[in-house]
Amino acid sequence: MTSAAITPASHGRRPLYLLLLTFIVPFAAAAIVLKTGLYSTIGTTNHGTLIEQSLTLDQILNTQPTSSESINPNTWKLMFIMPSQCDNTCENGLYLLKQIETAMGPDKPRVDTLVIQPQRRNELDQVMQPVLSQPKFAQKEMSPSASPSERKYLYLVDPQGRVFMHYSVMADRHEAVLHGRDIVKDMKHALKLSKIG
User: Fold this and answer.
1) CA distance 120 to 60
2) What is the extent of the structural domain holding 84?
3) Are residues 67 and 30 in the same domain?
4) Residues 83-139 pLDDT 10s
């Protein structure tokens, strides 16, 4: 009976190979995901749509003649821009603002709700057009060609004044309430991770 002897050299290389695989495989997988764009198809934890192009609350407020002195600069904000005609979807947006404010519980002092009633809608549209003209901002219930200030969205604004996420407002009240729960989850998550506001 013969048995194959394990040479010390081959036995010593196994831990080295395992060590290399431990570092190389995750790095290679991450490189593949980044290069192929697979990360964009993987679900994210947020329920809203990120606004990648720069948009600030000051840009929006500067298009209107009303004073912004009463707005607390140190809080997170959930903002709704009133359309020229307030239909069911618009009413759902206003309803959600109140419900979300209540649902924030102990975090309520850190969040303000803000309703913009545009008086100079054309100026507001010029500011928002570059951001909301992207295909991902088209709503099912209205034409993507509708002016930006007429689209019914809730916007999330951080304490530094960056408008960074939007949520479509649903025409159906039940759907709107369910979507409101997702907004609350996103806001609580943002507040948990944030050291500001």
Assistant:
1) 11
2) 49-193
3) no
4) 999 999 999 999 999 999 999 989 999 999 999 999 888 999 898 888 776 655 554
